[in-house]
């Protein structure tokens, strides 16, 4: 999605942990379709460096944005 950087909508930190919610919004280069999807990122920091990172992606919504799933499919 070259025209749509992620917008961080939420961020919270406590001790050495950080959580972030981002919404990706833009046009998919291969299909020309505009769409959006959400990611959640979790980080653990030690000595000022990120030492662990976990990410959760709303793949159903992402695949809809990419045109790989129909828009009317429902999450189960």
TrEMBL record:
InterPro entries: Cyclase_SnoaL-like, NTF2-like_dom_sf. It holds the Pfam family SnoaL. GO terms for biological process: polyketide metabolic process. This is Ester cyclase.
């Amino acid at each position: 999605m070259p025209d749509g950087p992620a917008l961080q909508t939420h961020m919270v930190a406590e001790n050495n942990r950080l959580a972030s919610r981002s919404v990706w919004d833009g046009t998919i280069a291969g299909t020309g379709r505009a769409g959006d999807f959400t990611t959640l990122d979790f980080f653990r920091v030690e000595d000022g460096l990120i030492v662990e990172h976990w990410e959760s992606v709303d793949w159903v919504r992402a695949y809809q944005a990419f045109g790989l799933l129909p828009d009317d499919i429902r999450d189960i």
